[in-house]
Amino acid sequence: MKTIDDLNFSGKKALIRVDFNVPLDADFNITDDNRIQGATPTIKKILADGGAVVLMSHLGRPKEGPTDKYSLKHIVSHLSKVLGVEVQFANDCIGDEAREKAANLKPGEVLLLENLRFYKEEEKGDVAFAEKLSKLGEVYVNDAFGTAHRAHASTAIVAQFFPTAKYFGYLMAAELNNAEKVLNHPNRPFTAIMGGAKVSDKIQLIEALLDKVDNLIIGGGMAYTFVKARGGEIGKSLVEMDKLDLANELVKKAEEKGVNLVLPTDAQIADSFSNDAKTYDGPNDQIPADLQGLDIGNESSRHFAEIISASNTLLWNGPMGVFEFDTFARGTKAVADAIVAATERGAFSLIGGGDSAAAIAKFEMTEHVSYVSTGGGALLEYMEGKELPGVAAINA
Ligand SMILES: Nc1ncnc2c1ncn2[C@@H]1O[C@H](COP(=O)(O)OP(=O)(O)O)[C@@H](O)[C@H]1O
Ligand SMILES: O=C(OP(=O)(O)O)[C@H](O)COP(=O)(O)O
């Protein structure tokens, strides 16, 4: 893997694709800067070498052209603080201003370009647009793991203009190494814990994992589709009626492959989708018609924790319940606690997926697991065995 360690950036201008698609509140404060922190070592190494840095990113999914809401100018002051450098900003990612500011950049200086997605050419992977971007640096670095599953102008196409001067940043390298370690060199037993809302989002990952894991724990909203498929009564719980056969097939496949597929047995049953709901723990296949399961029950939490405790590699994707409400965060917290305890006695734990990372952050456990991925969709696609365009473009 060609990383930025293979080059001394002294006197060089690096064009770095980062993923600064960070969550902002109504006052444009960054609510989670994991992705900015993640790209910092790459930027600092290049500056320390005596190089200059031009940063490019998208923010959100702007529909039509420049909008204040999606401007990257909102992150400049925070980024300056994190880097300890006064970051310059270009109000457009291409054009005269960007060109001049990039041309005048001195060693040790950093320029951030405006949101790439203000041009539809970015997502279309337009070659002419990529070429314009390529003029802003002499070396191309991709450190945008969170966007590596997109074949966009700045993540993939631009690399062709740097045939001998394209490198992976440290974040990209760390993400790929950790994902690879879990997938291909896990210490056993290897347990995957899947949760979240929908089976349909995770189906390919579940199938791919059946060839890799010893235990596959399924919790969260998606577990009810499995319970329903077995003929259980799940009340108003989340279900995908068109995925019942698929759920049964997955259970059968797991049996054939000798994978221990573990479903919850009880649920925290609620009378409404709210933090103030009245709740009780009961069997998740006997939920009254007007009620719904919004978390796994305590019996399931204990069972999941036992399996996690006995594991040496852990992959967690998706919460066990509606953890955004404290009332339904108990199961997710129990799983997080078990993962932290296993990590402390030497297991390797990889946390992926936007909501699992948010849950770990909410419980202030980010420092107590082995690795929290900055990728949601990108990590899932990598784990499913797909080639990521952002990775392929550097390796080409
Ligand atoms: N039992 C449940 N009923 C309804 N929603 C649930 C349930 N369990 C989890 N969820 C919701 O699933 C969402 C996360 O799903 P998903 O996006 O698939 O996870 P991730 O982003 O980690 O991949 C969370 O917002 C959570 O509230
Ligand atoms: O937030 C992102 O991905 P994620 O929602 O899968 O974590 C990336 O920045 C990619 O954004 P996109 O899904 O709009 O291409």
Automatic annotation (TrEMBL):
One of its GO terms (cellular component) is cytosol. InterPro entries: Phosphoglycerate_kinase, Phosphoglycerate_kinase_N, Phosphoglycerate_kinase_sf. It is an enzyme of class 2 (transferase). Keywords: ATP-binding, Cytoplasm, Glycolysis, Kinase, Nucleotide-binding, Transferase. One of its GO terms (molecular function) is ATP binding. Its EC number is 2.7.2.3. Gene3D superfamilies: Phosphoglycerate kinase, N-terminal domain. It catalyses: (2R)-3-phosphoglycerate + ATP = (2R)-3-phospho-glyceroyl phosphate + ADP. Substrate binds at residues 19-21, 35, 58-61, 117, 150. Pathway: Carbohydrate degradation; glycolysis; pyruvate from D-glyceraldehyde 3-phosphate: step 2/5. GO terms for biological process: gluconeogenesis; glycolytic process. It is found in: Cytoplasm. Pfam families: PGK. It comes from the Bacteria. Monomer. Belongs to the phosphoglycerate kinase family. This is Phosphoglycerate kinase.
